[in-house]
Design a protein that fits this description.
With 240 residues, this protein is of the alpha/beta class. The chain has a single domain (4-234), classed as Aldolase class I (TIM Barrel). The protein has 8 helices and 8 strands.
Length: 240
């Protein structure tokens, strides 16, 4: 897994293409946030334009822009993630993050992942991996039955998901440390509110992957901001 992963909430396909072009040669992994406007809002591409676009792309043999240049993670902030997961995998995503509270059918979701994609605990994560995202106040008991079916847990660092630029919820650090102590072998990702200031504390708490959105895209020089975050991880290391 990449340590610093830029997150893009695309407002259009053109926006996605332009941001990916800027990131060429700067990182290996990119997270694309797909927001349906129902489970979270405001809606992102393709929900704000044409919900049929991904299916059309797949039918016409297209892939995500710059496919082959990045490892793509799709963060599905969708109220019905099971209905679109296959499409995003077909378009080139090799990491799928679903939000634990976005569906009442987590068990069925993972059963389908096993039957449709051959995915299980020993599946090659280079080909396909799944993660569960939890909110700042999500009860850990919700995800514990499924921890043997995911490669990582993504802690959201902000209260309102799907909107970049919100303040980081500091209480998340304690939640991460407690989770890491109980489940030391599960990779931990943090998405939302990641900054140069809190990145060292997050790494020390046990995080192995920092997903950064506004810290990169709202900076005067996004690539310089990305490099600064990457330099921090080289200084502070990864705490396994």
């Amino acid at each position: 897994m990449g340590i610093i992963v830029p997150a893009i909430i695309p407002i259009s396909r053109k926006d996605l293409e332009e941001k990916l072009a800027l990131l060429q040669g700067q990182c290996e992994e990119v997270q694309i946030d797909i927001v349906d406007g129902e489970y979270a809002s405001p809606a992102s591409w393709p929900y704000r334009e044409d919900t049929a676009e991904p299916s059309r792309m797949l039918a016409e043999g297209e892939m995500l822009p710059h496919a082959g240049e990045f490892v793509f993670e799709i963060d599905l902030m969708s109220s019905n993630p099971e209905s679109s997961t296959g499409t995003w995998i077909g378009l080139g995503a090799t990491k799928i993050t679903i939000h634990a509270e976005s569906t009442r059918f987590l068990s069925r979701f993972f059963e389908n992942a096993r039957s449709q994609y051959g995915h299980d605990k020993d599946f090659s994560t280079d080909l396909l991996s799944f993660g569960l995202a939890i909110g700042t106040e999500t009860n850990m008991a919700l995800i514990e039955p499924y921890l043997d079916r995911v490669e990582y847990v993504q802690f959201m660092g902000i209260r309102r998901i799907g909107v970049q630029g919100q303040p980081f919820e500091s209480s998340v650090i304690q939640r991460i440390a407690a989770f890491k102590k109980k489940y030391p072998h599960i990779h931990i990702s943090v998405d939302g509110g990641v900054t140069r200031e809190n990145a060292p504390k997050l790494l020390k708490a046990g995080v192995s992957r920092l997903v950064a959105g506004s810290a990169i895209w709202k900076a005067p020089d996004p690539i310089h901001a990305l490099r600064e975050l990457t330099a921090l991880t080289e200084t502070h290391g990864i705490y396994e």
